[in-house]
Mutator family transposase
Amino acid sequence: MIDTAAGKDTHVSKDQSVPDTEAAAARRLAEALDASAIDALLADAKAAGTPIDGADGLLNLMTKAVLERALQAEMTHHLGYERDDPAGRGSGNSRNGSGPKTVSTTNGPVTISVPRDRNGEFEPKIVPKRARRVGQIDEIALSCYARGMSTRDIEAHLLEVYGINASRELISNITDVVTDEIEIWRNRPVDEVYPIVYIDGIRIKVRDKGAVTIKVAHLVIGVDVDGRKHALGCWIAEAEGAKFWHSVLTQLRNRGLRDILIACCDGLTGLPEAITGVFPDTVVQTCVVHVIRNAMRFVSYQDRKTIAKSMRAIYTAPTVEAAELALKDLDTEWGRQYPGVIDVWRRAWNDFIPFLDYPPELRRVVYTTNAIESINFQLRKITKTRGHFPSDEAAMKLIYLGLRNISSKRGGESGTGTWGWKTALNTLVVLFPGRLPL
């Protein structure tokens, strides 16, 4: 209508009524959650001797009431008329009582009455048929599993904290929901170019053909042009070699990878040959920290600091020639007492010296696989709780959930950053002209 005093049209459109309805709903919800209403509810619960939580607690009673009311609302929507409404006569379908059902919630088990219709066509959404869990129960089980808890531990945890009887088989089935997700992850497209790729692995015990064997879960981490690290894939194998690595790298190429500038790895049999075979322009760089660590295995404790200082002169040398002189000095001083140290450096030399061609800002990025080792360290924490895995698939499931959990803490889906990346990227543009996407 028209407000003649103000001279303005005060007609309320249909669209305007939606916010009004939402405002009214919000107002009613606020009234229901008002402190005085909650105080009265708590006082009644105390007078009736009803605890706040637990299987017979106030929270469970409220959960039961809300679920049952929601199911009745769903039934009304399904039939198209309210209970006892004459409009339902002759409709061809009607309510047909209800049946009990116990579901697990984060407040504990709740027994509810699920309405039925005479034609058996009602499919509830809030508590679907055959569903026995509502809320975050599945997410809790997955989260515990991803942090290394065994199915036995999760079973005990759910019973102790939530009063939920969940068998180990049920928990295993819950974690199996990521199987399809794993396949999508393992076959997803990757970027065409990764300036740096780190490759390393962790040892795991897996039952294979009736015997427990040692296998290695090889993890490949790619640093994209924005400096973000991404887990490109994980491959579990009992033995490694050029053929295995050629298959891994071919899979990455088939998923869209066209070029790697620097591949940083350590002593993986057949990997350097496979990299140059699939990506001939890639520079293979050994992990300097691995070389130092391997060399230190031959050194007595009292000489460690002195030899570490001598080795530092090798990997901080400005040129290859200077590094060779530093290695010669190390050999002269310690070679007779610790020949194993010199042997480690000699065997790694050809894959180490490309590192010396890089300026300091790039050396800081590629001198170690620590970026991947930090992830491996966290994966070892969750895999060591298992004596062994029943299969490769079970091992992959836990590793994937662990990676997903690490990613959510360390930068999300976009990956984790690389310190000093902008400076390193400018250096890469100069060292590898025309190979980085613009």
Notes: The CA atoms of residues 221 and 231 lie 5 Å apart. The first helix runs from residue 14 to 32. The chain has four domains: 43-85+93-135, 138-182, 191-284+388-438, 288-367.
